[in-house]
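ligand=iron/sulfur cluster
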Amino acid sequence: MPGSRRNPPRYTPRVKPHDGSESGASRRLAWFAEGLPFACQPDCGRCCTRHGDYDYVYLSRDDVRRLAAHLEMPVSAFRARWTKKDDGHTILKMDGPACPFLDGSRCSVYEARPSQCSTFPFWPENLASRHAWDELATFCPGVGKGELIPLHVIRGYLRGRPSS
Ligand code: SF4
Ligand code: SF4
């Protein structure tokens, strides 16, 4: 899920690797306390494509280790082949119109995908307000679809820990 270095009008705000702490959106009694409906839609992949400046997939050290292991590469080789530095952060090289791991509309490294991807769309920026969430729905067709994702699961995402 590419993020952006700028403040975007919708979707993919500035995203930095999670530090494990709860955000303000999670600590407060949230507007989403009743849960939120969400279901990623098949054959979509919109959030894995570049759009304007939105092309940042930040990688934590764990992300790098996990992806390198998944691709059966040494970490150093993975870093050299697939990553670059931006403002002190490790990010995926995005030389094409989409994430290099996007295969058609599916993620080819799904089991090892970065935390930024596995926690989307439940990012603090997207949950900052009902308005931000509604704005996201104009980009991500999964927002508002499917079963209600309960608050405790959303809080897990906000801490960078997807439930499954
Ligand atoms: S790693 Fe997978 S989920 Fe993340 S942006 Fe790339 S294709 Fe999408
Ligand atoms: S439904 Fe949303 S989360 Fe799923 S691939 Fe499309 S844009 Fe991404």
